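Sample intake sheet
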Amino acid sequence: MSDSYSQERFTCEYNKVCGSIFREERKSRGMSLEKIAAGLLSKTALGNMESGKTGWRKVTGDTLFQRLGILPDYFEMVASSDELERWRMREDISLLISDQDRKAQDRIREYRERYSDREPIEEQFLQKAELLLLLKEQVEKAGSEVCLQRERIETMAEAAIARTVPDRRGGKWIELPLAPSELEAFLLLGAVRMICDRSEEAWQIQQAVWDYPRRHGWRKRIIVQIMPQAALLGMELALQEKDSSKAFRMGREAVEMLRRNSCHCYLLPLLERMSGISEVELWERDRAYRNEIIVFRDGFKHIYAQEGYPGYRIWQGVYVENTREAGIVLKMLRKFAGKSCAKAVYDGEEMVITERQLEKIERGEHMPSHENYQRLIRQYGKSGGWMMPMLETDSVEVLEQWQEICFLIGFCEWDRAKERIEQLRQKVVMSYPRVRQAFLLFDALILQEYKREWEKSLDMLQKALYITMPDIEGDKKWWVFQREEIIIASNIASTYRILGKMEEARRWYQAVRFSLQQQKGKSGLEQRGYAILMESVDNYLGQEERYEEAIEANKEAVSNYLKQPEIDTLDRAYYRIAWNTCKLSSKQKMQHELYRKQWMDAFQASETVADLFYDEYIMEFLQKRRKDYLM
């Protein structure tokens, strides 16, 4: 790591930066520590988290940010093995609850038995899951039986809310800071009111939740975390009143929010409920839209069924695509540097922990203190470049602008991206390492897009990567590639491929892919940046005419994308399957008809996803090639 990096690095550690951003956002809303922390943790505990004195636990920390209407995915976080194992078990419940009631109940019971020290938001999740299972059971029975259970299900709904919202008297809860996962508990109470023929009370709850994000000034990216659920309850209430147009319009607003954010949370339930409304019951302007909805419904039912994915799953309020396990991080960095455990326990001055303790941390049995963790990673050049926002800033507005640029580049809207890059350049401190890194990446990509100067672009990409990655002869596959590093390294590999340096390209692809596979850890999810890597890998395998490998890699990518809330790259993966299958068919003509069915299916799936999410670049691309795949 260069001296200039050491001199210029942004010195705040993750907890302090994270806490600083949270504190600034909290104060800008005039919100006290006591109010924002209520039901989750004490005022003192939150004060310590804000100042960086204590660690920022994943579940509670994410919920706190969401109470401010902010998604905390601007950060790359490190969590304990225990936290990620708990997330994995909750994810299992989320996937099972739609059609495997008994297994879901067993998993909930297992969770309670294994983890007695549950945080409030964890317990609330379990209570909501139990209530959903009971509601499913009751709705399948006669209405009279439901009302016989009214006291029980109302008690369960009230208890789920009270887990993190201890005082909701007089409807004042609408003024409290609440996360989407907490608002879901209110929607469940609304559903209970509805099935017990108390529709007026159900409407009051539904409207309060529907209006909540706008009332509290939430950013659009987090509104999508609650709008679909609120829409589904509202649609059922409207249909009970025979107001099909109102139900359809509410569903349409939620679907459009999902489309604009490339998100598929509760997508299929919305599509099926909307397509079930008769065309004659709708206003004329909604009829054509209903036809689109039917196409999307059929397309996604097929996609989910083909991939064995539950379209009616529930979603957690906490995501871990930006989160890594502390033990895996330390193990990988140690192997990257070629150190033994005996040598890795020193921070350059003295022993931080014992060799035995490090071995247990790497196995996920122990979690180091925040201070010790920082001392251990500092020897790998990670001080100042790890556990931080994507850009070194305490401004959520700047982080949003950075994310918008990444989104525009992903959708190949280069002119708009250039304009936003120049605007962002005026708002950041260019001497900060990760800021320099981000702009070098942007400039390299623009150079490729507009001038095709591959050698010059490669030099810029390498300079960008080595701002945060030591330029040493370590085994790169063991480097803990972070989001921006994944994107940069994948582009380095692609540029080598374009320049005809296939061995260099292969070496970079293998290193990044191996690193990500190691980091999947307890969550089983790929890290952010994976989509860029897989597109690059496909291009490499295609150029090598290794079509079968490319097909399998892309099928794996499709499965991984569906596990995420946002699936904006799914259309590209399906097209890559179609292209490779078509190429494979030309080499193995004996199985042409079998391959033809496969590429047609993949191509149509690509069209469905691109059309749903307004991916105009891919839609135009697919339209030009439609006759090659479907005629």
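Comment: The longest helix spans residues 284-307. The chain has 32 helices and two strands.
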